[in-house]
Design goal:
The chain is 33% helix and 14% strand. The protein is α+β, with helices and mostly antiparallel strands. The strands form two sheets. Strands 1, 2, 5, 6, 7, 8, 9 and 10 form an eight-stranded mixed β-sheet that branches. Strands 3-4 form a two-stranded antiparallel sheet.
């Protein structure tokens, strides 16, 4: 995601250790020497001092913590007072890794966070952003990496490529994975759709294939339709035969396990004998027991003792 006029792309800045600070900090910037070697080009002292004053005011206004960088001048590329932005805002937002940008870009990012990013993060992510993942910042190159195009805003430290955001709750979102189609992609899709709509439909040419005439069909001789009616019977119109179902009806769906269990329970309940049948069966069982096993619960002698008593008495 390119911000403040920058195009997407460019190499990522090397990671640097981030030091914590209690408030906005700006140290004195060095003189206007060339950063990166090459031609002996310099920013004038007045340009550097004016840029430093403006930069200090911006960093203080937006509660930014930054690390000063030597003035950059390489051909048309560079800026007199670049900084590496570590964190921004009174509710701090960290930048990982710290990007090399100018201080006007710091002001633009601060306004962008307050008016757009943080409200959208509260709405869609359930919390505010705490860390911004940086893909690239200052790079002396032309737009989109082409040789014959305008210089990119990255060449003036006036652009920032963002890879993703992290909320204070730890939710991480990446632009390449979650952003969706860009305006350029949507416009290209619409142009392709309009072009396809204007294109006339392709006319299909008839194929030259020899078609043989249909073979004559043998027609059987017509038979007279004779209805024999017995004498004395009333002449009534015969009803057409009823349609017969050859295939059995197909169930709409297979009953569930719960329905099958309920059905088996109902079948078992229906198979149980009625109360009257149960009483008759129990009475029959009692009679059989009395016949086979005489009752001895009244305290009388057991059958064997009775037989012995009869033998002694005789």
């Amino acid at each position: 995601m390119g911000f403040a006029g920058g195009d997407s792309g460019g190499g990522a800045m090397p990671r640097r250790p981030i030091t914590r600070s209690t408030g906005p900090t700006v140290t004195s910037l060095p003189d206007g020497k060339v950063d990166g070697g090459g031609a002996a080009q310099r920013w004038s002292a007045s340009e550097v001092s004016a840029a430093m004053r403006a930069c200090k005011a911006i960093l203080k206004k937006y509660a930014a913590i930054a690390e000063p960088v030597s003035p950059i001048r390489h051909g048309v590329c560079g800026t007199p007072a670049p900084i590496r932005l570590i964190q921004l805002g009174r509710t701090p937002v960290r930048f990982d890794p710290p990007p090399t940008i100018n201080c006007q870009m710091v002001a633009a990012v601060a306004k962008w966070l307050d008016t757009s990013i943080q409200p959208q993060a509260r709405k869609h992510l359930g919390g505010t952003i705490s860390t911004i993942s940086v893909m690239s910042s200052y790079s002396c190159r032309r737009a989109y990496g082409r040789r014959k195009s305008r210089y990119s805003e990255h060449a003036f430290a006036n652009a920032l490529d963002i890879g993703g955001f992290t909320t204070r709750a730890g939710l991480d979102t990446r632009l390449l994975a979650h952003w969706g189609m860009t305006r350029r992609d949507i416009a290209a899709r619409e142009r392709a759709r309009e072009k396809a709509a204007k294109k006339p439909p392709a006319q299909t040419k008839p194929s030259k294939v020899a078609v043989a005439p249909p073979a004559p069909v043998a027609v059987p001789p017509a038979r007279p339709n004779v209805t024999i009616v017995p004498s004395g019977a009333a002449t009534t119109a015969a009803a057409p035969p009823a349609a017969v179902d050859i295939m059995p009806p197909v169930p709409i769906r297979r009953p569930s396990l719960k329905e099958r269990l309920r059905g088996s329970v109902r079948e078992r309940v229906a198979a149980r004998p009625s109360p009257k049948e149960t009483e008759r069966l129990q009475a029959y069982r009692n009679k059989v027991r009395k016949f086979l096993y005489p009752m001895s619960r009244l305290g009388g002698p057991k059958p064997k003792q009775r037989r012995r008593g009869r033998g002694q008495s005789g």
